[in-house]
Specification:
2 domains, 23 strands, 4-stranded antiparallel beta sheet, Methylamine Dehydrogenase, Chain H
Length: 256
């Protein structure tokens, strides 16, 4: 399938939490689009105020949050396609997302912190401070117990969702952490960066389980929903040796 209706770059996509036929995309053409893969077409287009770079679907599937390059976050009602609210921030907004219950909304920012908001009130409940560099990415454990944050300081922090307490730091990478993903059971965490390996950690201890060698920077990783199989894609920019195996999606699996 190829979806071609965006008129600019597509920087991020997100699947509906419970409906495997629906996904949404954040476009540099100042739109958010919802796609039905059964019909291979866009079923809703929402115009926004800026070039969109981050997008997340709420756990109940009723809301999409999208962040743009001007640090504006827009919340969209997926049933009507209408904007619920827009919130402008006075700091750099990076990845965004809800906890598994959908009552908390998280933002990674350029101040080395993660503001946590009550949702839908969008009142600041807590600010998780654990990094000395920009917080870039965030992911939530499928069991609802932990969330992890990746930072420009090349470290990963693991936090308890209930208490917002940082329980461990993972400092093994040398470059800014660009992507994180918990395994289906919440036991493992994959972290990727410009390092030439993907770090796989045991969540309960932070200990390294294995590192996966790569030949170019890795900016996206995703675990299989039921098995210890990790999908990842590496950078394929022209500055790298084209003879290397780049520009491909790879899978890595191992037994428990």
């Amino acid at each position: 399938m190829t979806f071609t209706e965006h008129e600019g770059s597509v920087d991020q996509l997100c699947w509906h939490k419970t409906n495997p036929e629906l996904l949404c995309t954040a476009g540099g053409d100042k739109t958010v689009r919802i796609w039905d893969v059964r019909q291979i077409k866009c079923c809703s287009t929402i115009n926004t105020k800026g070039e969109n770079i981050n997008i997340r679907w709420s756990p109940d599937g009723k809301t999409i949050a999208v962040g743009n390059k001007e640090d504006l976050v827009t919340f969209i009602d997926t049933r009507t396609g209408q904007k619920i609210v827009e919130k402008q921030f006075n700091y750099e907004v990076n990845e965004i997302g809800w906890n598994n219950s959908g009552n908390l909304f998280f933002i990674t920012n350029g101040q080395g912190a993660v503001p946590i908001f009550q949702y839908p009130e969008l009142q600041v409940l807590h600010i998780a401070k654990g990094h000395c560099g920009t917080c870039i990415c965030i992911d939530f454990d499928p069991t609802g117990k932990h969330f992890a944050v990746g930072s420009a300081d090349a470290s990963v922090s693991i936090w308890l969702v209930e208490s917002f307490v940082c329980v461990r730091m993972i400092p093994r990478l040398s470059w800014p952490v660009r992507a994180l993903h918990f395994s289906h059971d919440g036991n493992l965490l994959a972290a990727a960066s410009e390092d030439l390996f993907i770090d796989i950690s045991e969540v309960s201890t932070g200990a390294r389980v294995i590192d996966i060698s790569v030949e170019t920077p890795t900016f996206t990783v995703a675990w299989h929903p039921k098995r210890y199989i990790l999908a990842y894609a590496c950078d394929d920019k022209e500055i790298y040796d084209r003879k290397k195996d780049v520009g491909t999606l790879k899978l890595f699996g191992f037994s428990s």
